[in-house]
Amino acid sequence: MKNLSLIVSRTALAALLAITVSFLSPAQSHAASAAEIDAEVDAAIEQLEAQVPGTRELAKRAAGVLVFPKILKAGFLVGVQGGHGALREHGKTEGYYESVAVSYGLQAGVESFGYALFFMSKEDLDYFHRSQGFELGSAPSLVIADQGFATSLSTTTMKKGILAFFFSEQGLMGGLGVEGTKITRFDPD
């Protein structure tokens, strides 16, 4: 009986890892064009502003906003997530980026979500530009914000740091996070 459950567990793990790889491969192998990414970022910004009041005003005050419209995540004990986005400075795209992370622990499922990083000072944005492969979790002053946090922000309470907002969560997987996420610049097709 014990051997049967071990075989079933290993088979389930192998199947879920195969699904994970196939689930993420199209997003990674099909490098979207700049126009496609820009259109997805525009739609994501509209959705974020509708879901999280106050982010429109926050974006006006931020030195830059890095938006990942759709991050795909899948895993069973080991999770993989990734997606493409764009950095906007004063409403204009300044570059295209890829977000990739691997995690491990008690997790199972598949989900998609979007996230936006608001760089509240020029120093924080400059730090991002200088980094060769920006890693969230080691970034200065990263704050994961929820809707309640966004409504309590004012021009005097948030002038420095990096704010992360999640939106458009879909699927079944516990917890959202950006700890250990690596963000690198790329040139779309």
Distance N to C terminus: 53 Å
Number of domains: 1
Structural class designation: alpha+beta
Task: Report the mean per-residue pLDDT as an integer.
Answer: 76
Number of helices: 5
Low-confidence stretches: 4-29, 147-157
Beta-strand segment tally: 6
Q: Using the CA coordinates, give the radius of gyration.
A: 18 Å
The secondary-structure element order is HHHEEHEEHEE
**Beta-strand residue percentage:** 35-45%
| Helical residue percent band | 25-40%
* Global shape: globular
Quaternary state, please?
Answer: single chain
Major beta sheet, specifics? 6 strands, mixed
Structure commentary:
The chain has 189 residues and is of the alpha+beta class. It is 35% helix and 40% strand. It has one domain (2-186). Strands 1, 2, 3, 4, 5 and 6 form a six-stranded mixed β-sheet that branches. Strand 4, helix 5 and strand 5 (162-172) form a beta-alpha-beta unit. The longest helix has 28 residues, at 2-29. The radius of gyration is 18 Å and the shape is globular.
What's the gist of this structure?
With 189 residues, the protein is α+β, with helices and mostly antiparallel strands. The protein has helices spanning 2-29, 34-51, 55-61, 122-130, 147-151, and strands at residues 64-89, 92-119, 134-135, 142-145, 162-172, 182-186.
Keywords:
189 residues; 6-stranded mixed beta sheet; alpha+beta; single chain
Spell out the blueprint of helices and strands.
Blueprint: H1 2-29, H2 34-51, H3 55-61, E1 64-89, E2 92-119, H4 122-130, E3 134-135, E4 142-145, H5 147-151, E5 162-172, E6 182-186
Parallel strand pairs: 4-5
Antiparallel strand pairs: 1-2, 2-5, 2-6, 3-6
